[in-house]
Amino acid sequence: MKSRSRGRGSRCGPEGDRVVAGDVLARLDPVQQQQAPGAARTGRQTARAERSQGQADFARLDALLERRAAIRTDRDAAEDSFQAASGALARAQARMEQADKALRDTTPSAPQNATVIDRLAEEGQVVGAAQPVFDRALATGVGAIFDVPEVLLADVHGPVAVLLCTLDNPDAASSGTVSEVSPLVSPDTGTMTVKMAIDAPPDRLDPAEAVRGTISFADALVGLPWTALSAQAGQPAVWRVFDSGAVDLVQVTVDSFATERMFVSDRIRPGDRIVGRGRICCFPVETPLM
């Protein structure tokens, strides 16, 4: 949200405030703006008096011209003066309305229900016209933004169940739906930006608060570092570590790859211990040399 007037900020609302339409968000020092409406009204009164005088002169000379008691040049001059006075009155009226608007702009208010997520000006700071003062989020719903590996979205068809919870209160889970998926992959992280709308956000959910999202797929995938990948009989495999410390080579099906990670879809369950480094030193039913 940008300031429509120039002035020194005397009060600015804090970040995180929830405001409704019409609430005052800030106040600017209105010394100059308070003087302008008075001067504009004085100018309008003067212009109105001149227009009334010009109208009366034009009507008088027009009547005299009909009785052949005046010449046409005087009548035309009076008409020109009347038209000029009418234009001056219209300009004075516009200046007065502009001055009133500038005074109202010293107390910017929220046009819609929203939450202030960032304050870009401090109290005592001189802000210029059209300078950003607040960053706000419209109160049309609460959402979350995630950076998701591309491979997790490649095989998603149709809606998926998403559970969201804050890091401070993981027991209070809320459901969410995907509202937007970025069509571009970040070259730095290899992820795509996914926006989700929270259907029933928990109470007192602050802006920019970290949340955790959980997605359930029909076929569970297990993520492993790519360094764990080995081979057996020409097929991908990984070394699984037993509780005794022995290892065994297990064939797996690689579903997809991500940045420095791979996802397998069978024979490995969440919680299994897999050799991530030193696999060339592993032998079946032996303790790996770490």
From TrEMBL:
Gene Ontology CC: one annotated term: efflux pump complex
GO molecular function: efflux transmembrane transporter activity
Chain spans, region Disordered: 27-55
Record PANTHER family: HLYD FAMILY SECRETION PROTEIN, MULTIDRUG RESISTANCE PROTEIN MDTA
NCBIfam families in the cross-refs: RND_mfp
Family per similarity comment: Belongs to the membrane fusion protein (MFP) (TC 8.A.1) family.
Full protein name: RND family efflux transporter MFP subunit
The species this protein was found in: Salipiger aestuarii
